[in-house]
């Protein structure tokens, strides 16, 4: 009789353990999938926010761009050259909304009125993109009520997020103001912000699952225990 009770208790304990392990596995898989999906969605939101902010900064840079592009006038007209503009930019980057050295400033030239060609690179604050390079500026969208461009560029072998705004028509040499930030930098910041909340919520969910499973296991095995006692 005693041996039979012990064998039944062992089967009951084994059932509880199997239920507990199954619940832990299900919760772990669910947390992994939901964490990965949440991370992806938040990362895409961070990318969108970063491009919006760069587009806003590009709009704010319209005024300093115009002033830098026309430092010398003659007979009421701008007499500055592209070389003078580049010299001003190299010595006065602080006038632009570059968030320190976080953002990369690229200015596209103003094509001639006659004979169509796409705007090409006139200035790169990193100095790596050759002048005359044509860069795609991405899709057209609206930020702060202004038409801007946002998208992705491959520069120096890595992907950049881009926000661009048209330069004022009074700027003789510049047509577009482009701000760029490495996508990997934005992704790393998003991952850093998400890591702690995801781990905390995952741990809380796992503990809750263990507690609930233990209670359910006891509820499921109680009828078996009562049947054995009755027998």
Describe this structure in words.
It is a single chain. By secondary structure, the protein is α+β, with helices and mostly antiparallel strands. Helix 1 packs antiparallel against helix 4. The longest helix has 59 residues.
Main traits of this protein?
231 residues; alpha+beta; two-stranded antiparallel ribbon; 4 helices; 8 strands
Tell me the overall shape: rod-shaped
**Order of helix and strand elements from N to C terminus:** HHEEHEEEEEEH
What fraction, in percent, of the residue positions are helical? 40-55%
Q: Please give the count of helices.
A: 4
| Topology, number of strands | 8
Low-confidence stretches: 1-5
Rg over alpha carbons: 31 Å
Largest β-sheet summary: 6 strands, antiparallel
Would you tell me the structural class of the helices and strands? Answer: alpha+beta
The portion of residues forming beta strands comes to 15-25%
Topology:
Elements: H1 2-60, H2 62-69, E1 73-74, E2 77-78, H3 82-91, E3 104-109, E4 121-124, E5 139-143, E6 146-155, E7 158-166, E8 174-182, H4 183-230
Antiparallel strand pairs: 1-2, 3-4, 3-8, 5-6, 6-7, 7-8
Helix pairs in contact: 1-4
